[in-house]
Amino acid sequence: MTQLYESLETYLEKTKAQREELYKWFHQHPELSLQEAETKARIIKELETLGDVEVVDVGAGVVGILRNGDGQTVAMRADFDGLPVKEDSGVEYASTVTQVSDKTGQEVPVGHMCGHDMHTTWLLTTISYLAENREQWSGTFEAVFQPAEEIAEGGKDMVAAGITGKIPVPDVMLGQHVMGALPLGHVATNEGISFSQASTVKVTVRGVGSHGSMPEKGVDPIVLSSSIIMQLQTIVSRELPASERAVVSVGTIHGGTKSNVIPDKVVFELNTRCYSQEVEDHIHASIERIVNNQAAAAGAPEPSFEYSDRFPVLDNDRDVTAKVTESMQTLLGEERTETFAPLVASEDFPDIPNAFGTPYCFWVVGGFPTPENAPGNHSPQFVPELHPTLEAGAEATVAALCPWLAV
């Protein structure tokens, strides 16, 4: 079991410059969700250089399959989309990319401000290492490169494109994410529910337009929306038990064009997060109840609701996670291996293993020298330390693979 891992240090040292160049290329070429054509093409190019890797096109994503005799099948996922965020990291390889959004039609700055470039480099490193060290493992490895994690559509896209019929059913699926909340180079796992499920709710509050000096002739959707937004804050504080963790946040609000014009509508968007479908259903029903009732009380036209960015709860299989954790403690060392409490962050990683009915484990990797000062994911400053982060994710992956693939 340890031979597969012990050869990794030499490989990582030998390929340091190559891996750094690859990561910097991804970092400097971010693309928005479901618009990642150049990124996907580079991933395919890298897989094809390995020779005997089968490259399977799956919707907007791609899978590299490396077969190496009898044994179990393990899938590992990396996401590769960027964010509409202007980078402000100060690194010499910072992104200066802009892209026209398919969703809005507007040109926006794009940056890899959530570490997906690091995840992609880790996975390409892993499959390259396995291809070069076949004598130390047996089975099948599937490198799943997934688009559009940021909008919770990438896993769904690959499932809709037929991934469950295009690649062998994995016995286990693994994933990881770089974060700033734990020490540089450390790895943390958690058994059971680990990431919250989440949704975006777009609410359109309708009114009756009028002159600002004649509010009695209209129904003011700005005043109405203000009242609604305040009332929405009581869902968590007054409708859920104190032991239940949940979030209801209003992140955008748009309405009106001029100070003396009462508009005919206001649009705002909420983000909801919790750890069970039952609680999410309750929150969404409460949102609709509050909005509809306050609109009716104001004599306003009927509001409307749109749901999107729906992330599943991430529930790590306990047996799989126990094996992964034990292997990491043995090979990385207990001083680098931690556990984490359930996060209110969300991930669409479970969509693909859930489609297969495959148990999974997803862990986090520290990428910043001082966690207390590290920027949060999606911050314009979120750029992990190059080394040893580039090595840590590969080390964690190979350690996690050992219980299933090592000979």
UniProtKB/TrEMBL annotation:
<dbReference type="Pfam" id="PF01546">
    <property type="entry name" value="Peptidase_M20"/>
</dbReference>
<dbReference type="Pfam" id="PF07687">
    <property type="entry name" value="M20_dimer"/>
</dbReference>
<dbReference type="InterPro" id="IPR002933">
    <property type="entry name" value="Peptidase_M20"/>
</dbReference>
<dbReference type="InterPro" id="IPR011650">
    <property type="entry name" value="Peptidase_M20_dimer"/>
</dbReference>
<protein>
    <submittedName>
        <fullName>Amidohydrolase family protein</fullName>
    </submittedName>
</protein>
<feature type="domain" description="Peptidase M20 dimerisation">
    <location>
        <begin position="199"/>
        <end position="296"/>
    </location>
</feature>
<dbReference type="InterPro" id="IPR036264">
    <property type="entry name" value="Bact_exopeptidase_dim_dom"/>
</dbReference>
<dbReference type="InterPro" id="IPR017439">
    <property type="entry name" value="Amidohydrolase"/>
</dbReference>
